[in-house]
Design a protein that fits this description.
Layout: H1 3-31, H2 45-51, E1 52-58, E2 63-70, E3 90-92, H3 102-105, E4 112-114, E5 122-123, E6 133-135, E7 143-144, E8 155-157, E9 179-181, E10 200-202, E11 222-224, E12 245-247, E13 270-272, H4 284-291, E14 297-298, E15 301-302, H5 305-332
Parallel strand pairs: 2-3, 3-4, 4-6, 5-7, 6-8, 8-9, 9-10, 10-11, 11-12, 12-13, 13-14
Antiparallel strand pairs: 1-2, 14-15
């Protein structure tokens, strides 16, 4: 088979996979049932009074107010009354039936906002000076209508939403972001991720086929990609000197050669590729250690001394063979 024929076959396979992915998405959208109707239930001042705690200094420091509110699992459909509680800093309204989050966004002192498990379908978040944690997981979000501009945000979770596009998650607007959770979304690719402080990225169960775009995340420590469509480890760079763990079980990585893309990660100690095609290769375990000298465990099993010695021997043999090949090539010239 010629290179041209092989290239055409690979292109045809890729196009077929894209068509299959689109068909799966269409089927999922068709299967999505409309939310069951619920009885309207507004959050009231009386409810709030019984759910407030944590007194703190506010304003100039001479006044005091309750700054924490937990109204989780109250079957709420409306929280408009919150707009008048300007001193709230910690709000948990998870597991309700809220479809509109705008009243929460009007709280200027917010440090932490949890809206997990509601029915919010879109996000148009104004800039917040102090917000550090934002959990919008398991809602109905399909689109971020504007860039998220939160200069102190440390954690952003969009897990379990129907989001397909991450372009509104811009590094320049989130300079302190450390944890980004995009698991169980429909995002197919990552934008250029120049997050200087990002330590954890979770893209589990997404249709992403590559990790291209993360090479500039110089402080990344953990990548979780379990159950994703990842086919290649290409995308890591030698600037990523803090990566310690990669969880890529049940992905579509097939070739042992892909492990070479991890050789630039000097602190990588834990690698998980169980239930991926690559884990079925006979030389998978030793080749992982040959490529990544810093590995301590693979798929949860720690390496034995004999395995370290075998990997070192193979590494030295290959280095010697490569040096000889270079010498021969130089002599021929």
């Amino acid at each position: 088979m010629s290179d041209e024929e092989r290239s055409d076959m690979e292109q045809s396979d890729a196009e077929l996979e894209d068509v299959e992915d689109e068909e799966v998405e269409e089927e999922e959208e068709e299967e999505e049932e409309e939310d069951e109707p619920v009885d309207p239930k507004e959050l009231t001042k009386e409810m709030i009074a019984s759910k407030l705690d944590l007194v703190s200094k506010v304003g100039s420091g001479l006044d005091h107010a309750f700054v924490r509110l937990n109204v989780a699992s109250m079957e709420l459909t409306d929280a408009a009354v919150l707009e008048s509680y300007r001193y709230l800093r910690y709000v948990d309204a998870s597991n309700n039936f809220l479809t509109d989050a705008s009243s929460f966004y009007q709280l200027p002192e917010l440090l932490s906002l949890t809206l997990k498990g509601n029915r919010i379908s879109s996000v148009q978040l104004p800039a917040h000076k102090y917000l550090q944690r934002l959990d919008l997981s398991f809602n109905r979000i399909k689109v971020l209508e504007s860039e998220i501009k939160l200069p102190l945000l440390v954690l952003l979770s969009l897990e379990g939403n129907k989001l397909k596009d991450a372009s509104m998650i811009v590094p320049e607007n989130l300079p302190q972001l450390q944890h980004l959770i995009l698991a169980d979304t429909r995002i197919k690719s990552l934008p250029a991720m120049h997050f200087e402080n990002l330590t954890l990225l979770n893209i589990s169960n997404t249709p992403m086929k590559t990790v291209e775009g993360i090479g500039a995340c110089t402080k990344l420590q953990t990548l979780v990609a379990s159950g994703s469509a990842i086919q290649s480890f290409a995308g890591f760079s030698d600037k990523m000197i803090e990566v310690q763990e990669i969880v890529a079980d049940a992905t579509k990585v097939e070739e042992v050669a892909e492990l070479a893309h991890l050789s630039c990660l000097p602190k990588l100690a834990k690698l998980t590729c169980a239930d991926s095609p690559i884990s079925e290769q006979s030389d998978y375990r030793v080749e992982a250690l040959v490529c990544v000298e810093s590995l301590v465990s693979l798929d949860g099993d720690e390496y034995e001394q004999e395995e370290f010695e075998e990997a070192t021997r193979l590494r030295m043999e290959r280095a010697s063979e490569e040096a000889e090949s270079v010498q021969v090539a130089d002599d021929d010239e």
